[in-house]
Structure to design on (153 residues):
């Protein structure tokens, strides 16, 4: 049976690869402009999602590019250094992002296309948090077991 540590590593890497694909593209101005202005807007209109979809000006695009660059670096870190604490941080960050997106959909009536992203962020976030706390439970259990052993020195 695979340990929680190994499962958490695999989920961290898989979520990082997802981030390269889904979010990393925002780091590149031309690709981000196309994705936001043509691709996502086209999906919003074709599927007749509720809520508004804004036009993006250069300042909006700058923040999308900064976010994409951060996502690339954060993903790389999680692949290169598979530390459990990164699973905790990424899980919490994803729950924060999902909550923030939900707030925007409900309060400011932004595009319901965000519901897809909310679901994905919750999926990765909750999975990583669950595995992180399962690992902590395993570690605490093994510490108690080890400390209960008689000292045979």
């Amino acid at each position: 049976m695979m340990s929680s540590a190994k499962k958490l590593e695999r989920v961290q890497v898989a979520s990082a690869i997802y981030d390269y694909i889904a979010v990393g593209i925002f780091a590149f101005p031309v690709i981000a402009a196309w994705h936001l202005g043509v691709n996502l807007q086209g999906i919003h209109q074709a599927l007749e999602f509720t809520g508004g979809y804004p036009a993006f000006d250069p300042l909006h695009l700058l923040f999308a590019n900064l976010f994409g660059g951060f996502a690339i670096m954060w993903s790389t870190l999680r692949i290169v250094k598979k530390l459990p604490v990164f699973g905790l941080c990424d899980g919490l960050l994803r729950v924060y992002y999902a909550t923030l997106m939900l707030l925007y959909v409900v309060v400011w009536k932004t595009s319901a296309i965000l519901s897809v992203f909310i679901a994905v962020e919750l999926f990765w976030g909750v999975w990583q948090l669950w595995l992180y706390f399962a690992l902590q439970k395993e570690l605490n259990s093994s510490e108690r077991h080890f400390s209960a052993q008689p000292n045979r020195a």
